[in-house]
Amino acid sequence: MGRGPSIENRKNAEDARRGKIFTKLIREITIAARGGADPAGNARLRVAIDKALAANMSKDTIERAVKRGCGADGNDDMQEIRYEGYGPSGVALIIDTMTDNPVRTVSDVRHALSKHGGNLGTSGSVAFQFQRIGQLVFDTSSAGAEDKLLEVALDAGADDVQVDGGRSTVLCAPDAFETVKKTLTAAGLTPLEADIVMRPDNRVAISGETEETLRDLLDWLEELDDVQEVYHNAALPAA
Hints:
Elements: H1 3-32, H2 43-54, H3 59-70, E1 79-86, E2 92-99, H4 102-115, E3 119-120, E4 130-139, H5 145-156, E5 160-164, E6 167-172, H6 177-186, E7 193-200, E8 204-205, H7 208-223, E9 227-232, E10 234-235
Parallel strand pairs: 8-10
Antiparallel strand pairs: 1-2, 1-3, 2-9, 4-6, 4-7, 5-6
Helix pairs in contact: 1-2, 1-3, 5-6
């Protein structure tokens, strides 16, 4: 009897987390679909749909989001706004949002930063420290996996493969992302993560209280309904 509430609470928390992920994915599809409803001719939409499918979103839900973005299912007032700023110890942050109320969103983001020793910067204040790049992460802990990934990835047009422990990260130009992903998948290599991201040119080492504060800030930002993605240039050890 005593275990029931605990299990139920965990399930409710998981449902809430899943719901928040779905909300962000639906927004991404909706915005991406403004560039065309056909994924074959809209690379951003293709990436968004792939992420939604990987999260087990139903095709009906995806189709509704595409229709909404194309205006076939009513117009929406969503805007994309990118904020740049600094976290504790000057860690650079890029915060991508989608919102129908920019006044609320900037207030929420500014509050989150100020509560954690950071501040909002001007447009362009940190973006120069990042580059837009295709990134695919693979589990290469099994024997021979690293060598196979390296060979296939470079033949597919990837720019680099970086190995860290049992994980390998394939980097490529955004324009080559779809080709690289398809080639790797066809070779039996399924990515744990695959997206076009803002990746820092260099990462800064942090530790102790700064690391703890930054993790709290990232959690806070991720919980904001309007925040889609958060990128930073800290070298955070795996939690």
